[in-house]
What we know:
Largest sheet: 2 strands, antiparallel
Mean pLDDT: 84
Shape: globular
Order of helices and strands: HHHHHHHHHHHHHHHEHEHHHHHHHHH
Radius of gyration: 24 Å
Low-confidence stretches: 1-12, 491-495
Oligomer: single chain
Helix content: over 70%
Amino acid sequence: MDSTAPDSSRPSNDMPLWLALLPVFVLISALSWNVWIYGDNALSGSSQMIIILVTGFAAAIGLLRGTSWKQQQVSVVSTISNAMPSILILMLVGALASIWLLCGTVPMLVYYGVKILNPTIFLLACCIACALTSLVSGSSWSTAATIGVAMVGVGRALEIPDGLIGGAIISGAYFGDKVSPLSDTTNLAAAVTETPLFTHIRYLFLTTGPSIVITLILFTVIGFNIDTTSTEVDVQNVLGAIEQRFNISLWLLLPPVITLGLIVRKVDAIPALFAGVLAGIVCALIFQRELVADLMQGADKYALYSIIMNTLYGGVDISTTNTMLNDLFSASGMRGMLETVWLILAAMSFGGVMEACGMLQRIMDSVKSLVSGFFSLVACTAGTCLVTNLSTSDQYIAVAIPGRMYAGLYKEMGYKSENLSRTLEDTGTVTSVLIPWNTCGAYHAAVLGIGTFTYLPFCFFNLLSPLMTLLFAWFMIKIRRIEPDQQEGLSSVTA
Length: 495
């Protein structure tokens, strides 16, 4: 039995640190160069090929160091299998975005969003709305796929730059994802550190609260400095174009209400999104009959079936009298997610090889040797989370591995487990979406239609959270220590 399982302990013990870091350095350097060459088209295939080539390079090092291809293959298959739910969600989101466009849900949200909001308060309102949705649903992914997509439409209609829109959506979504008791990463961080869930959440608010307040202030200041002169003239044009093409009704809220309602009731994301797709199909047939009939012109007797199927897997383009809306009312369906799926498969393969060959463990061990005090302990934990996000492309691994790695060290140094669980969330959870080849970064870029490097500078909450946890550690603000009698008990157990 043991012979078939990945055995990274032997190669990790004597592997030089520079050799363990070499694939990560080559990957980051090559991807940076590739982005410089290809720009926004880097994720169309070239970045995926680079990850595959560097995976081969890492695998070759592993073979030379004594890790068999069988061991590496088992690890790659295991990491990819862990990512399969994310891939299925991504494919469903592609279908959902297209059918919600055809049924009028997205245009309706854009219509009322443009009517109610204005550029001055849009970023603030967008961030708050996404935060509340994520807090209730416990998922940044579901938030981005539902209200996030609608907010992109509203923001573009108001001529807000894409980077700011994406930053507001992701900042709000990840606030809710961090502190919601329904969030998988929140529960994971609490579980791997053996911290009571609500103890973890309450302690997390000490750093999360200031981060989101500063974020909202920044979006408010930016909003008041947005030029609104051209937008005020175009609003009526946008509203008229939407009314001319779609039947606008509040009944079109049914698909997102059903989807979010199922998620709140702790139904798994895949059946919840599937229900949202089915609801979108029904709404399209009931409320957008004129639009569907227009798209059916000149088609055969199976036209209705073909239009629905083409919308789900191939996307839909709906033309209006407004040029800007023509770009907005275009979705690529499941087919549009294939490049992102390819990216995830390549990235998870790299992470699997790194883990099987012991390179990841070697990097982790070297980081632990740098710990000398509480600040360095937190800094090393944060650095480990970031390196894991970069090298394994998965936020769950970036929470779980450092959590297991540092749990004993925090106890040995006399600090309660919530110090560790908070650091895992402040660094491992929120930085994943800022990395293009991470599953979270790839997902949000694909769903929102905004490049990772475009929204990254404006994800204020995600950038502030790691800095806030380091600041609290430096000044020893509200740091919880293990009581002396508890420390003695721990020592006697481990002795």
